[in-house]
């Protein structure tokens, strides 16, 4: 979902500061030129369903405590609902362009967002904050959008972090 550690630049799908209604949400050039064509090509070649999942590296920088895509920063509590709605917009945008989404991760490497020296997009989440956001915001928002079918994965990180993110 938007910029990752493979991206040549940090970006999100709504870099307009304060756009909590996400009226400026739009897929990026990278999606149109690289991601979507590759996904569509893979789907055309596959004899079976290609299972795609979206994984965010960072919310828009203006939604975070540090105002940056990288380094130590968490999602501002007042951005919990807009961030959940961002997920829905991502799924709808991809699916309307021939890339059906099977599942989502809540955050790529959530503990990296507590590292002051982390060099690429990240966002810190404690297990408790993530649990509460899923229960109060993301889960109900996905359900209201008719996306209950999506698989939701947490602790998109390394095995040694599993004790911090119990099921």
Automatic annotation (TrEMBL):
Recorded GO CC terms: membrane
GO biological process terms on file: glucosylceramide catabolic process
Reactions it catalyzes: a beta-D-glucosyl-(1<->1')-N-acylsphing-4-enine + H2O = an N-acylsphing-4-enine + D-glucose
Source organism: Meganyctiphanes norvegica (Northern krill)
Protein family membership: Belongs to the glycosyl hydrolase 30 family.
Domain of life of the organism encoding this protein: Eukaryota
Residue span(s) of domain Glycosyl hydrolase family 30 TIM-barrel: 1-164
Record flagged with keyword Lyase: no
Molecular-function GO terms, alphabetical: glucosylceramidase activity
EC number(s) on file: 3.2.1.45
Pfam families reported for this sequence: Glyco_hydro_30
Entry keyword set: Glycosidase, Hydrolase, Lipid metabolism, Signal, Sphingolipid metabolism
Name of this chain's protein: Glucosylceramidase
